[in-house]
Write a structure and sequence with these properties.
292 residues; mainly beta; 4 helices; 16 strands; elongated
Length: 292
C-alpha cells in the first residue's frame, strides 16, 4: 500500500528478509556436498541451487502493491530510490573455499514478472543465473530464445522501459584478514607436505552499479527479484588444480534484510503520455502459464 506523504507524493516499498546460506564440501569434491538455507527469508525464495556448480545461490521474489494509487486514479512516477540494508556486506565466513570468485547480488524492480514457474524449475547456474545477470537493458531481449536463456518467458526479457530499477553488488573475500597455514595462524591439518588451509571472515564490498528507467507505472504491481550468486565452495571449473579440493570446506553467510523504497511524484502526464508509458511498460507479459 502506498503511504501518503502529501497530495502529490507517495512512498512505496518492499522488504526482503534475511537469508542464511550454509555450505559444506567433502574432501576431494569440487562442488558443495551439503547446502541449507535458513532464516525467515526462506519464505520468499523461488529458486535455490543445491549440490551443483554455484550451489547455495538463491532467488527471492516479492511484489510492490500499487493498487491503492490505481484505484484512486493517481499517476505517480518514481523519482528517487533508496535501498537500505542492516549490513553493507554478508556476514559470516568460509573455510577452504573459493576465494577468487566474487559473490554477486542483483536487485530487479520490473513492471512485469518473469516466468516464476520456469525460474522455480531451473536447476543449474548456466540455465538461469548466468542469463539473469543481463536483465534490464534493451539488447538482452534476444537472449530469450537461446539455449541458455529462459525460453519459457515467451514475451522476451524485460526491456529498459520495463525495468524501474536494477542494482548489482559484488563482494570479494578479504585475504588480508585470512588465517592460513602459510602465515602460521592455522596448523597444517594433514601430515606430510604443507597443504593450504584458509579461514576467511567478512567480505569486502567491491562494487555497486545501478541501471533502469525510473519510468512511471501505476499498477497493479511492481515485481521485485533478489538474485544472489554464491561460488564459495565451487571449484568445478578448475578440477584438480586447486589444493583446497583435497580438503573439506565450510561456508556460512548471512545475507542481510533489504528494503527498497521509492519516492513517487505526480509527473502531470497527459492522458496520451500516460497510456503510451503504460503500454511500453506492460507490452511483454510472458505467455504460457502462471508467472507470479
Amino acid at each position: 500500500m502506498a503511504r501518503i506523504i502529501d497530495k502529490d507524493t507517495r512512498l512505496i516499498d518492499i522488504d526482503f528478509n534475511q537469508i542464511g546460506v550454509n555450505l559444506g564440501r567433502s574432501a576431494g569434491n569440487d562442488k558443495p556436498t551439503s547446502v541449507t538455507l535458513t532464516q525467515s527469508g526462506q519464505n520468499q525464495v523461488i529458486n535455490n541451487l543445491g549440490l551443483v556448480s554455484r550451489g547455495g545461490s538463491f532467488i527471492q521474489y516479492s511484489r510492490i502493491d500499487l493498487s491503492y494509487m490505481t484505484e484512486n486514479n493517481e499517476v505517480m512516477q518514481p523519482v528517487n530510490v533508496s535501498v537500505q540494508r542492516t549490513s553493507p556486506v554478508p556476514l559470516g565466513g568460509s573455510n577452504n573455499g573459493n576465494n577468487f570468485d566474487k559473490v554477486e547480488e542483483y536487485i530487479f524492480v520490473l513492471t512485469r514478472p518473469l516466468n516464476n514457474d520456469v525460474i522455480s524449475n531451473a536447476t543449474t547456474y548456466a540455465s538461469l543465473y548466468r542469463p539473469l545477470r543481463n536483465v534490464g537493458l534493451d539488447g538482452t531481449e534476444a537472449l530469450a530464445g537461446t539455449a541458455t536463456g529462459l525460453a519459457g518467458l515467451g514475451g522476451g526479457w524485460p526491456s529498459q522501459e520495463q525495468t524501474i530499477y536494477a542494482e548489482q553488488r559484488l563482494y570479494s573475500v578479504n585475504l588480508n584478514n585470512a588465517a592460513t597455514v602459510a602465515n602460521g595462524e592455522i596448523p597444517d591439518p594433514a601430515p606430510g607436505p604443507v597443504t593450504d588451509n584458509t579461514l576467511t571472515g567478512i567480505m569486502n564490498l567491491d562494487l555497486v552499479n545501478s541501471w533502469g528507467s525510473m519510468n512511471s507505472i501505476t499498477g497493479p504491481n511492481l515485481h521485485v527479484y533478489r538474485v544472489v550468486i554464491v561460488p564459495s565452495q565451487d571449484f568445478s571449473f578448475v578440477p584438480g588444480i586447486c589444493t583446497n579440493e583435497l580438503l573439506g570446506g565450510l561456508t556460512s553467510y548471512e545475507f542481510p534484510a533489504v528494503n527498497i523504497s521509492f519516492l513517487c511524484k505526480d509527473p502531470n502526464y497527459s492522458e496520451g503520455e500516460y497510456l503510451t508509458r503504460v503500454a511500453n511498460a506492460m507490452n511483454s507479459t510472458p505467455e504460457g502459464g502462471p508467472t507470479a
